[in-house]
Design brief:
The complex is a heterodimer of chains A (about 300) and B (about 250). Chain A is α/β, with parallel strands linked by helices. Chain A is built from 11 helices and 14 strands. Chain B is about 80% helix and about 0% strand. Classes of the chains: A alpha/beta (about 300), B mainly alpha (about 250).
Chain lengths: ~300, ~250
């Protein structure tokens, strides 16, 4: 498939702190690519870099074959960007906020009006168009930002935690729209919501300390765990320290953590789990839950370690 | 479409929203300066012509200059430090220069509006008649000064994030314009050492030019052009600094 976005050895530092370290990856046209990572891992920075809000120190970035440094006006006009924070214009109405943004991207007044009304209707805020955005609930302000990112029909959509603060109905509306859009647009979104990442992304990249630790389709990422399983045991009373000490003796029990009455650990071998279970039964085991390792577990393993 | 057009449209929409307080401010500012500054000083300062007529130039300069400064500086501070609207603007296919031009144009729009209202008010209060040619020459001089304060305001607004610090700067500027450059107190009242510094600043001559129209004195065109070139120079510096600030290097 043809590349929509290409990062080549991109580096960015502020002072002595490295924010992006020799970052290289590509995103195909018409795909949905998700960036997940802890706070400060560089997710938002990648999106800001793509829309020209931050300059890189080294490397090259291309959007649809155009260098973002030398052809910044063209590349910026191709992108729709929804930031994490609310940066709407409080001196304008919701309608003008979206419409003026469309006109800044080259739409005529009539086109901007038409598109604004279209997105307002789809997102369900037509009745608020003449009001100030700052009189609205946070979730609605996020929807306005989403509409603003889409008003000029961009080829590339960059969304920074798009559904944060939205109610379940609004989340569903936004994802339904994105589901329809992803056929002819490249979508990159940053999130900390693993369920959304698993559900909607064609490719997932796990960022840690300014670099991609792992990326690929969800299936491929899960494959790399080689059948790693997450186990949760619930006790009716807190197990003694002696139990935890015994658990440490099992070589293939990974990352055992006791949180209150719940013990969580990982293992690739059922036999190991049965041994732990036998031991746990001696200490008021109340319930248990097992699940195949998912994105959340992979993320924890990669960023915090302990699952190698 | 030229990106300046939607940005200009945005300014007009904001003006439309705040038209009443804006016009009220335009009316009140020259009246307040006239009442609390010019009238008391007219009891103390003696000169060949009527003091209130002479000080009208100072009122136009102070009112229009401060309005231009405050509008351009506060808008720049707001989009950059308070609301982060600058991210939405800079994400659009507009250049830093476009953004600076519209911010300076905003300061000029409000400054010119203030100047027109101020000249109407002082003429009414002083029963003063200004010929069309005098108004034209005053307008040319004032246009340069309003541009100057808009550019300075844009620069200050881009650099000063602290609200208290910005208020202090605005107060110092107000005191400087009213008391330091001969707009309300003739420069002959100042010590020589002070004058030797103030007279090297081209803006002093530009201020003097506005009063020269009232006094029917010849202009100092050198001061006018030096102020204009100085303004362009500050504008270039602002543009250079914007490349370091806007893209958050």
């Amino acid at each position: 498939m043809e590349a929509s976005i290409t990062f080549k050895a991109v580096g960015k530092a502020i002072g002595r702190k490295t924010l992006l370290a020799d970052l290289s990856f590509g995103v195909e046209k018409g795909s949905t690519f998700v960036l997940i990572g802890e706070n400060g891992s560089g997710k938002s920075m990648i999106l800001k870099l793509l829309v020209g809000l931050i300059d890189k120190d080294t490397g090259s970035v291309y959007i649809h074959g155009q260098d973002i440094s030398s052809r910044s006006l063209e590349t910026r006009s191709m992108c729709g960007y929804m930031p994490q924070n609310i940066n709407l214009d409080d001196d304008l109405t919701i309608f003008d906020n979206i419409s003026i943004h469309g006109q800044l991207h080259g739409l005529t007044s009539a086109e901007a009006r038409k598109n604004t009304l279209h997105w307002a209707e789809l997102l369900g805020f037509t009745q608020f168009l003449k009001q100030s955005p700052y009189d609205q609930a946070f979730g609605l302000q996020r929807k306005i930002l989403f509409a603003r990112a889409l008003v000029h029909d961009p080829k590339v959509l960059l969304l920074d935690e798009p559904t944060t603060g939205m109610d379940p109905h609004s989340r569903s509306t936004v994802w339904n729209i994105l589901d329809k859009l992803h056929y002819d647009k490249t979508i990159i979104f940053a999130t900390q919501n693993f369920t959304e990442a698993e559900r909607y992304a064609n490719r997932i990249a796990i960022l840690h300390q300014g670099n991609i630790k792992m990326d690929g389709t969800l299936e491929r990422l899960i494959e790399t765990t080689h059948g790693l399983t997450n186990y949760r045991l619930k006790f009716s009373k807190e197990p003694p320290q002696e139990f935890m000490d015994q658990l440490e003796q099992f070589p293939r029990i990974l990352r055992p953590r006791l949180k209150g009455l719940e013990l969580e650990f990982y293992s690739r071998e059922r036999q190991q789990f049965f041994k732990v279970l036998r031991l746990a039964l001696e200490h008021d085991l109340a319930d248990l839950d097992t699940s195949i390792c998912r994105l959340r577990d992979l993320f924890i393993g990669l960023t915090e370690g302990g699952l190698e | 479409m030229n990106p300046l057009l939607p940005l200009f449209k945005r300014e007009l929409l904001e003006f439309k929203k705040h038209v009443f307080p804006t016009v009220l401010f335009w009316v009140l500012m020259p009246i307040v300066i006239h009442t609390f500054l010019a009238i008391p000083l007219s009891r103390i300062i003696t000169m060949d012509i009527r003091y209130l007529n002479w000080s009208a130039g100072g009122i136009w300069i102070t009112a229009a200059g401060m309005t231009a400064f405050l509008q351009s500086a506060s808008r720049m501070r707001k989009i950059q430090f308070e609301s982060q609207q600058i991210d939405a603007l800079l994400k659009s296919p507009i250049s830093n220069l476009d953004l600076l031009i519209i911010n300076i144009a905003r300061g000029m729009m409000y400054g010119i509006g203030q100047f027109i209202v101020a000249i109407l008010i002082t003429s009414t209060l002083n029963n003063e008649y200004l010929s069309l040619s005098s108004i034209l020459i005053i307008s040319i001089q004032m246009f340069t000064l309003i541009l100057h304060f808009s550019v300075v305001g844009t620069l200050i607004g881009m650099l000063v994030s602290n609200g208290i610090f910005f208020v202090n700067i605005s107060f110092i500027l107000f005191m400087g314009i009213t008391m330091g450059f001969g707009n309300f107190i003739p420069l002959k009242y100042y010590p020589y050492s002070f004058l030797s510094v103030v007279n090297t600043i081209p803006t002093t001559a530009a201020f003097e030019n506005v009063r020269s129209v009232i006094l029917h004195n010849p202009f100092n065109w050198a001061g006018f052009f030096l102020t204009l070139f100085g303004t362009i120079f500050i504008g270039i510096i602002t543009l250079i600094i914007s490349h370091k600030i806007f893209r958050k290097i």
